[in-house]
Amino acid sequence: RKEVEQDPGPFNVPEGATVAFNCTYSNSASQSFFWYRQDCRKEPKLLMSVYSSGNEDGRFTAQLNRASQYISLLIRDSKLSDSATYLCVVWKGTSGTYKYIFGTGTRLKVLA
Amino acid sequence: ETGVTQSPTHLIKTRGQQVTLRCSSQSGHNTVSWYQQALGQGPQFIFQYYREEENGRGNFPPRFSGLQFPNYSSELNVNALELDDSALYLCASSLASGDETQYFGPGTRLLVL
Predict the structure, then answer these.
(1) Measured between CB atoms, which of A4, A93, A100 is closest to B102?
(2) B40 and chain A in contact, CB less than 8 A
(3) Across the interface, which of A8, A43, A102 has its CB nearest the CB of B106?
(4) Å between B1 CA and nearest CA of chain A
(5) Would you give the end-to-end CA distance of chain B in angstroms?
């Protein structure tokens, strides 16, 4: 079983739709959580950190459920420019090494 | 922009050859992590360098090796290239080994024929 699992999609949604992605992680010792956005053939870019209390940045809302070990991302009022792959990332330290563990990513296509 | 640079941007090699990829970290950052991203997959952790020492390694064979220099720039070396080594290689710098914020460079796209 992968440490971080995501539905690869693609999710094809019309402009203006609300779309939600979930991600599960297997290691309860995971320390921090993020959503990254990756455009085709580009590097991942930080979209937002994820906190247990939930956090919102404009049209984007992220939530962490430690008890169930899942992370969610909600995008409201989707724009064409939201089309990208969304990577769920867990950050944890083991024996002094701190690293990102990525999911495979969920592809989103927003259609006109 | 993150201030992390990588070179070259693209590279084509043949099986069995060796390759060196380079990364300049963001100013003031002493930790560099390398990731391999195959097509359709998320990035996979290769190893991390902290103050010129390897500070942890993912599930990659010894033919993947690296260096970090006194100015904290870094190299990733891959010997005896295999077709499956074709991927996007990303480096990420951070302020310290325990810093959860990593800044990614644009990557080097390697194609092995």
Answers:
(1) A100
(2) yes
(3) A43
(4) 10
(5) 32
pLDDT at B32: 94
Taking 3-state DSSP, the helix, strand and coil percentages for chain A, each rounded to the nearest 5, stand at: 5, 60, 40
What would the mean pLDDT of A77-97 be, rounded to a whole number? 90
Q: Provide the pLDDT for residue A39.
A: 95
Give the closest-approach CA distance of B13 to chain A in angstroms: 19
Q: pLDDT tens for residues A55-70? A: 999 999 999 999 999 9
Structure token digits, residue B30: 């002493």
According to DSSP, the β-strands at A60-65 and B19-24 are unpaired
Closest CB to B45: pick one of A43, A87, A99: A99
Question: Taking CB atoms and an 8 Å cut-off, how many pairs form between chains A and B?
Answer: 61
Residue B36: pLDDT over 90: yes
Residue with tokens 């991390």: B48
H/E run at residue B93: strand B87-94
pLDDT of residue A97 exceeding 90, the answer is no
CB A87 within 8 A of CB B41: no
B35 chain-A contacts, CB cut-off 8 A:
100, 102
B68-97 mean pLDDT: 94
